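Exercise 3.2. Students should predict the tertiary structure of the chain below and write it as structure tokens, then compare their answer with the key that follows.

Predict this chain's 3D structure.
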Amino acid sequence: MYAAKNGLPFMESILGFMTSAEFNFYYSLTITALYEKMSSKEKRYYCKVLKKNQKKMKKWSVSCKENFQHKFFLVDAEIMCLKNKKEDAMILYDKAIRLARNNGYIQDEALANELAAKFYLRLGLEKVAKTYMLDAFRGYSRWGATAKVRELLDRYPELLDGMGYEMQKDNPVEATKTLPSISMPSDNETASVLDRYFIDRAIEKISRETDISRLLESFLNIGIESIGADRGYLILEKDGELFIEAVKDSNSSAEVVEAIPLEESHKLSKAVIRYVARTLETVVLNCDEKTGIFASDPYIAEGNPKSIACMPLLFQGIQFGVFYFENNFIPGIFAPERLEVLKLLSAQIAYVKRIQEYLENDNAGVEKRGHGDIIEPLTERETEVLNLIAEGMSNKEIANKLEITLNTVKGYIKNIYDKLGVNRRVQVVNRAKQLKLLK
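Answer key:
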């Protein structure tokens, strides 16, 4: 504080430079950080300084939003904390983070995440705080702030989930460069070294699980942790329909359920899930803003979730289910980079041996019937549908391709399942290859 105060006489010499804005920004944050420890006299003085600083920052943010608006919002968030205006602070932190990210201010994005994490930690919301602190950790690492990364590891080991013990604590940023990477899908977008490390560790952990129920539970837990959700569902396709196989809620322990039909649950947006299963598109909703075609969904209108993310799960190019996540505290939390990590993670987990066996052989009539001929030959149209399934097409894409209704497609799929003695898309493709039914 005294260093900042002593620098004031030199401010005129740097006016017009970015340095003056940086001085203003960090001076304000220093005031908010020390405000509670000040005497009454000091509070009155520095409150005036803070107002003066923010008045300048607001002018700068109006003239150049890209450079200054996120700084203005972050200081404002800290001020709202001091005034105990919690909801206003939550909104301002997220605005500051989003704008800093969009405009390439990695260091300010990391700082905003760190301050938000401290705010939620004071509120006793440790799960939410962990999400922000992990983002702060990644941001400082990308920026190359080795000392700051080390400080976070030392100060918040419970929020960083033991990362300090599994990385070289004396130089964590450098350590991430030497971590072994796993095979990734060939794709133009790659995860950061820290994301690769997280995925590698997750796969190693889950591959040791032999019980399928606990494996599905672990699958969901890892998904929730990587995306920053407080509620998640693992939904798998069976007999052409969708069933909830696992549920995780931050307010309760993980629960593996006995294949509850999707239609029987009222704690998630079925409209979003049906859309993703039908189109194989990933959907991300910030429910504080316009929700497009899902605006009339009763669950979104009445349940008031803040953020929703839903993505298809694919195995060998064939859909086998859907991941559904919610965050009921933070709007706009499911950023694109988190979804990319989750896509990479799900692609790897789908090849874990037990998942593969479960998808290919679970209650399939193939084992009972053997590998001989099918009981009743497929019709020409059923064969056509079968080949489109093998190409990885969704029900909607098949309907558009053949110019028939979705219900008609479902009817053909049910007939194919019955004739081949299977109950999942993955199984039907494997069975068709065995019988040489594919073109």
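Discussion points: The beta strands are 231-238, 241-249, 255-261, 283-286, 307-315, 318-327. Residues 40-63 form the longest helix (24 residues).
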